[in-house]
Amino acid sequence: MSTELPPYFFRTRENGAIVFRVLTEDRARRIELDQIATVNIRNGEIKPQGDRELTEEDAAAIADWMEERVDVLAARDIDDILRAVDMLNQTAHWAQAKATDDQLDIVTDAMLLAMHDLRTVLVRKKADRVLRSRGMA
Q1: pLDDT digit string (tens) for 32-48?
Q2: pTM of the model
Q3: Nearest CA to 76 among 10, 14, 122, 123?
């Protein structure tokens, strides 16, 4: 474990983070977090806290974090979808091997509608990609 603390701490939120500068210069060896900005990943907005002006170092650290965070969230999205594929496979096995008629009555309509909606979106998106790759769109 490193004894050095990073210069910035990003308290993540649903759409970004609150950015703090980590201060360790206190005589009592306490760690202070000085809020310097709020970041919105969705629109790329960086709002300095109060009337503060961000340094070039602050701006660079925030930009690096935002780039990394977008990559992390994209990877999580793919992982979530692959988990959903696994869940669909488990659901198919459950429906075939374990489910009672009453249980199937509870879930069938909702599953069929959700799967129909998903299939429609996937087929349309695949067709769009094929047409684009052939230069037809």
Answers
A1: 999 999 999 999 999 99
A2: 0.77
A3: 14
